[in-house]
Each structure stands twice: as C-alpha cells, then as structure tokens.
Automatic annotation (TrEMBL):
Keywords: Coiled coil. One of its GO terms (biological process) is microtubule-based movement. Residues 314-341 form a coiled coil. Residues 118-244, 253-339 form the Dynein heavy chain coiled coil stalk domain. The lineage of its organism: Eukaryota, Metazoa, Ecdysozoa, Arthropoda, Hexapoda. Belongs to the dynein heavy chain family. This is Dynein heavy chain.
Length: 353
C-alpha cells in the first residue's frame, strides 16, 4: 500500500473497522500510519461503550491526525428524499411515491435485522463465555469444597483458642487485681512503719548532733573529775549500761528496765545536767533519744518484719503474674496469626471464584 500510494501515486484508501480488531496491538500500527499521513485512512468505530474512549486516550493520533465524521442513524425523511431522487427517471409520481415508501420500510427492516443479528451474536458469545465459566466452576468445585472445609476447621480451632485465651485473660485480670491489693497492703505497712520511725528520728538526730559537738577537751574535762559530781555519775551510769551489753532485743529489754529508773528521775534532763557538765548534757540527750528510738522500734519492728514478708509474697505474686501475662501475649500472637491465615484463605477463595 505504501508503494502504491507513495511511489506510484495511486489513490489508495485503507479502510479498517473496530470489528477487525482482534488484538489491541493492531491499533499501534494504525496510530503510526496516521502519523505518516501517506495513506488515506478510514477507521470506522462505534462510539458506544468504554472501548472507544480508552482507545482514543491510548492512541492519540486517532484524534489528532484524523478528521472525525459522526454518522448517526438516518431519519425516515432523509431516506424518503434519497429514494425520490433516485426514482425520478420512472416519471410516474404516484409509483415513485409508493416505491420510495417501500424502500424506506425495507431499509428500516434491514437496520432492525442487523441490530437483531448483532444482539443475537452477542448472546451467542455470552453463552459461550458462560459455558467456559461453568466448566471452570465445575473444575474448581472440589478445590473450593476442600478450602471451605479447611476454613471451617480453622474457624473451629480459632474458637477453641479464643475460649482458652479468654479464660487465661480472666485469670490474669483476677491475679492483677489481687496483686494491686497486695501492693497497696505492702505500701500501707511500709508507710506506717516509716511514719512511726519518723517520730523518733528528730530526737535521735538532735542527740547525734549534740554528740558531734563534743570535742577532745570536753572528754578530758569529764576525765578530770577525781570525784565526779552526783549528777555526772548519775548521767554516766545509763551510758555505761547502754554500751556494756550486746545489741540484741533481749538485752535491749533488760537495758530498758535498768534505764527506767534514770529516765524517770527528775534530775535526768539536759537543763539540769548542763549546770554541772556540758558533756553530760549531750549524754543525757543521747540516752533519751536511744530510749525513745527503742520504744518506737519495739512497735515498728513487727511492722518491718510484716513488710518484708508481704514484699516477698508480692514479689512471688508478680513473678507468677508476669508469667501469665507472657502466656496471654503468646496466645494472642497465635490468634493473630490464625486470623491472618483465615483472611488469606477467604481472600484467595473469593478471588478464584
């Protein structure tokens, strides 16, 4: 065709219709031919449907390099007018009119028959496609049935695992509640013991500060007494008692009994003793602080022991709780994987269908 049109200068028309498009690649060649402009190209396409719009977008030369003529269905008046013009040689107007009407009717009947034939052809094609699809469905029925059974089994297994997970979660929630209660009890005991000890700490700290204020000269002053005053001797006796025995509770109780006579004496106070000896004043403060601390500790010690026991129990409970929480996490992870597997199966099954 190119030789005839381009070399021999022969008038050549290339007529191509959309019914001849068996492969979309054909349109690539048509697109290139339209760009060369060496042939008179006539391309007939139906504007009905998505195919025409898609092809115009994919192959722009069909629009840019062509003149588009839109042909619609002829109206009866136009058909009648053409028939009259063609039949004028007959001469008889009455005959011409009748034959023209017959021509219009025949043309319309042919159009309807063509449309009917096209529709019937589409029905046949659809029937063939449906037949192929039915055959494919029959082939897939065993596979789909097996997949459905596997899916049902997976769902049942998922229900069992979910039930087990819910039971474990309930146990963990119960253990968490108990752990919170136990933690609150431990905190309450610790706070109570801390508050009791706080009552004795100011006096103890004051006594320690008083002892820190003593220096070597103060101690030498005390040693210098050949015959110490009665109050000095009186103050040093409980100090010797405190420093002369083992620091266990049994000895502490015996010490407290021995100290009671000194602590309740009217002259055993810092203001009275300081008149005789500055050093002994600090000793009085220290003995009084030790006495107060011992009394408080006697109340606090059982609480401290109880706190240690409760803390040990709480530690054990928390260890068990963490193990169960980890078990719940593992079960939930397993359930998530099963759900993902189920979604994949459902998606694959519907995609194949």
């Amino acid at each position: 065709m190119f030789m005839r049109a381009g070399v021999n200068y022969e008038d050549t028309v290339f007529l191509f219709t959309d019914t001849q498009i068996t492969k979309e690649e054909f349109l690539e060649d048509i697109n290139n031919i339209a760009q060369l402009c060496k042939l008179h190209l006539c391309f007939c396409m139906s504007p009905v449907g998505e195919a025409f719009r898609r092809r115009c977008r994919m192959f722009p030369s069909l629009v840019n390099c062509c003149t588009i003529d839109w042909f619609t269905k002829w109206p009866p008046e136009a058909l009648h007018s053409v028939a009259l013009q063609c039949l004028q040689p007959l001469g008889n107007q009455e005959v011409i009119e009748k034959i023209s009407n017959i021509c219009v009717t025949m043309h319309q009947d042919v159009d309807e028959e063509i449309e009917f034939s096209c529709g019937l052809q589409k029905l046949y094609e659809t029937y063939d496609v449906v037949g192929v699809m039915e055959a494919q469905v029959r082939e897939m029925e065993p596979i789909l049935a097996r997949k459905a059974e596997e899916g049902i089994a997976l769902v049942n297994r998922l229900k069992v695992e979910q039930k087990a997970a819910d039971e474990v979660k309930q146990m963990v929630m119960k253990d968490e509640a108990e752990a919170k209660i136990k933690a609150a009890e431990v905190k309450e005991i610790a706070d109570e013991a801390k508050a009791d000890l706080a009552l004795a700490m100011p006096a103890m700290e004051a006594a320690q500060e008083a002892l820190k204020s003593l220096n070597k000269a103060d101690i030498n002053e005390l040693k210098a007494f050949q015959k110490p005053p009665t109050l000095v001797r009186f103050v040093m006796e409980p100090v010797c008692i405190l420093l002369g025995v083992k620091p266990d509770w049994d000895h502490t109780k015996s010490i407290l009994k021995k100290l009671k006579a000194y602590l309740t004496h009217k002259d055993f106070n810092p203001d009275t003793v300081v008149k005789v000896s500055k050093v002994c004043r600090s000793m009085v403060l220290w003995v009084q602080a030790i006495d107060m601390y011992a009394k408080v500790f006697r109340v606090v010690e059982p609480k401290i022991i109880k706190h240690k026991e409760a803390a040990a129990i709480l530690k054990s409970v928390m260890a068990v709780l963490r193990a169960k929480q980890k078990e719940v996490e593992e079960i939930e992870e397993k359930l998530a994987k099963m759900l993902d597997e189920l979604r994949v199966r459902i998606h694959t099954q519907f995609t194949r269908v």
